[in-house]
Fold each of these.
Amino acid sequence: MAGRIRVRASLKGDMCEVKALMRHPMETGMRKDPQGNQIPAHFITEVVAKVGDRVVMQAHWGAAVSQNPFLGFEFSGAKAGDEVAISYVDNKGETGAGSAKIK
Amino acid sequence: MSKLHNKKGIVLGIASLCAALLAPMAIAQDDVFAEYRAMMGDENPAIFTIEEGQDLWETPMGPNNVSLEQCDLGLGPGVVDGALAQLPRYFEDAKAVQDVEARLIYCMETLQGRDAIDVLVKPYSQTGDQGTELEALVAFIADSSMDAVVDVPQGHPEEQKMYKKGEEIFYYRAGPHDFSCATCHSQTDKRIRLQALPNLTTNEGAGMAFTSWPAYRISEGLLRTMGWRMQSCGRQQRLPQFQSGSDAVIALQMFMGVNAKGAVMAAPGLKR
């Protein structure tokens, strides 16, 4: 059940602190299941955070990031009530998204 | 004094160097995880499992096409809040002492008309899984029981019998390593590698253990239940595999739960 991102965003002075928790298996492609079969790679390749049309953070990820990744970052130029929207794309082309209003 | 000091200077130097290296290591375990938890703040990936569990709880399933919402977890049909703090307990309808996993399976069979084997064939996640139905349901019930005070009942003779049985299993040495649960869990302030081992014979130790499961295991990226913890302990003892909801697992939880009386539920938490 991939696809969900929980987002929290709060103002700390003039910076906005964002915390995001994503539901994703982040399989490296190197692991085997108990029967010995290779588990296919399945991981997030790109994460984008936007406020309106403005991209405030963009990240390229790989297999080294943990399951259910937790992402934290700060950016400037935000005000309370703005909506931070975070989305990802993984190596299978599946997407996930979540958003929150800045408190 | 100074002579002694000079003579022993190098030795002392090495010793204190070792101490300096070892001391932070021993503490590091707690610090690193305290730091990790602080960084995560209120976020715990268990939240996803809890939400999935709530969906599963409310979704009609099985031949009878009903949800589990009318399942009696001991506090009346449909009452989830605080239920985990009072399990295992004796159920009149099942004529048995059941823990949360056994009770859920009982409800799936009786309410939903499902075959328990579908769940029992794989109660817990394996490598590459994202969680099972049972794990999700337990997570939801645990979350609803957060902050409840542990009060595992001992009023019924069957419950008292179960406690006695649990105590017996706890001290029973078996397997190729002649291990019992008590080997690891009957002394205070011991650890295995860097993990602190709770003393399950004391109120404090049993409380810490009982209230902290189910938990999200960072090292596995999965939510694990108390039943899994028991199975895993059994595996480490090289015992035959404990089955989810079996009497042995229920008895051990009864022993731990009664010893933990008065502790406050804090699951699902974050663990190593």
Note: The first helix of chain B runs from residue 2 to 40.
Amino acid sequence: MKANQHSPVFPAKEYVRPNLNWECGHLCKGCPCRIGPSPKGKCRATYECTPRLALKPGEVKGHWTCTRPKSGGGKCQNGPFPDGTCCNAIPKCQPRRSLRSIRKRVVVFTVIASFLILLVGISHNWRDQFTNPGPLSSVHASATFADIHALQSGGDSSNCAACHEGAKQGVDSWHTMAFDAFKRGLTPAGIIKKGPIEPSAMDASCLACHDGKKFHQRNMAAEFACQECHKEHQTSGFMPEVDSASCTSCHGSAELMAASREIGMKTDPHAFSALDSHPKIQPRKRPDKGYTEIITAFYTDHPEFQQIRDGVRDQSSLKFNHAIHLQPGNKIPRTLNCGDCHERDAKGEYQKPITYGKHCVECHTLQFDPDTPAENDKPGIYLPHGDPHYVRAFLRSLNIQYEEYAKSHEGITSPDELALYVKEKKVAIEKRYETGENLERAVFYADMKGVVPGGRRAPFAGCATCHDVMEPKSDNATPEIKKVITPDRWMTLGKFNHDMHQKGLSCLDCHHVMTSELTSDLNLPSIKSCVDCHSPKGGIDHRCIRCHTYHNSQPASLSPMSPAAPAAPVQVDPGNIHR
Amino acid sequence: MAEKKIDFTRRRFGSTLLTTLAVVGLLFAYIQYAPLYPRHAYLSGWVLFAAMLFLTFFNLRKRVPFLRLGSTGFWLQLHLYVGVFSGALFFVHIGWSWPGGIFHQLLAWCYVIVFVTGVLGLWISRAFPRMLTVAGYETPYERIPYARKSLREEAEALVLAGVDGQTSPVVAGFYTKRLGMFFTKPCNPWAHLRQSRAPQAAHTSHFDEVQRYAKKGERELLDKLRNLVAQKHMLDYQYSLQFALRLWLFAHIPLSYSLLVFTVLHIILVHAFSGYAS
């Protein structure tokens, strides 16, 4: 804190003009001349006064008198020289610009410098680098891309011109183009318009190389620009992932969804998905109103997964009980883990198909003859798995099968010994089953406990343990076994990576299979299980693109080679939906 | 007088509240509605440009005093609050991510410097006058050279009076060595801006040192001289703060015009390159 003091004396009546552009060079010393510099900054200092000639009556020469004003010190002692010049010459100075004038000059200089920077920046050599609003993604910045574009545009290899019409034109046409854009899409009403960005001329540039922009769902109510989702000029690597806001700009809009619903109901259902016809993927029924629920975020109002919501059941003919296989204490050789049967594919996304030969045979051997078991270096004799016709053929050629087994595994080579071996085996079989027909029935129809319909018992579990075996339609025909079709995927609208979810979660956290006793149980997790983590609260990424892809593949019926199916109403049998 | 102060306080509170509400409303609208309005950057851009025009040509108000458009103080308040609002609008416009590219970075930096110098200027123009008033008196900036000259002449007269031509001129030597230049120009501007009393303490120390070798008559002289040095320090303090009050405008005003120039090109570019042009 400074102490209170009196102000130093200064000539309060001295008129100061801070608004003038120039000030006397002696001002800094506190003694500026009274006249000051000219408006152009020239020093006008001459003498302190202009002496006046006083002529008394009768005098011829007269005498010079000092005219210095009081503010300048009053009349001087020496007075003017005899020739009439003042004796006090004011020393010349170099006038200085006032602070205000310097500021004006700085403003002018800065504005000129700004224009110069712009002129250099938009000159031909620098234009692309200067006006580029951000780094191009690696693909669009590549030399290959420039070459492709040069081919298409007839020699212009400028990367900006590949997408922007403005870059193709000269700088002199920018203002007309800007005004044109202002009149067309970017009008005051246009910029406050709700909904996605409409396609523009820039989309044509995208579609020169890319294909398939237009196909998402056939009932889209609004066509929109590539840049709505794909934001260029953000990073030099890959383009940033599509933000959920791009999806919710349509899916969050009640008007657009209502319009989509309308269009969808008038469109041929076959035109919607390419996945329905895939043999290894569970076919799904498109909801009557399409996928037009209003969704603003995954964790708030995303509908329940369709399979859960619609109560879809697994229609597979295989008889499988998860609970028995997984719960310890059941009468099974060993308790299984999920991974014993469900093996991850190479990408770590989905499960590989389950096969008998790899996953079931360890426990479910097809050993119909307990007298020829597996021992040390002998594998034992087993029925083939797969085709009931082969099984039947195997049973009807038991003589040959036993003879082959004796040759390969028993080390019997003598014809007599072979005949004896086969005879012994046949006698044992006949003793147990009496007839070949009984043996066949036991093989096909025996259940887990070896009970064959009709009261007989078998020492093994037959085909009917796991399969749906039907009586043949004619006498002496092979029993029919319903083909087992297990879909590779149930939820086809979204993608999923099991490996990513294995970090910190076990299978049972999402799939509640410990109590599942029916094959028809899907055991898929509800959306609630997902939202627990995939939400702001859970802290895991919850963007739409984590699961969904915008650019669905186009159905074959819509390919240019084959005309679209006629828009006739399709009767969907609910019973056949999930086969 | 008291009523006027209450009125001013109320008005400032009201304006601050209004600006805060506008900024909060803007941020809320951005978070809530930006996904539904994908062209919102154009809208925020135009509003920002209008705000910039208003802010840049605030000075024009002073050029047309004959038009009854409200007091300059009112327009200054508007300038401040619109400036603060434009800051929030700027970040909404750039989508909370710093732009890339030479030109757009130039534009963004230009805005940031103008905004920051504006805030700095606001602080300076609020804090420094108070400091100057607290200091005891205020010498008009343009009068400071006169006051400095007056002090210098007074000091020189004192020193000359102490020279008798016989004894060792302790005071004259001290003045020539330590104070001659001090009285001719503004000194220690940064120290005064930092409210430091170090230069004053240094001079006090020098005076104490000389005092020991001075005779009785010279001591009285030194005391008077010490007083004049204190006044010169005060004058330098006035000079430093008042110069700073003018200096920030050297960055704020020129860059405001540069910003306008860059903005016009930016508007042309984003429209010409938008894909809507034929």
Note: Chain B has a mean pLDDT of 89.
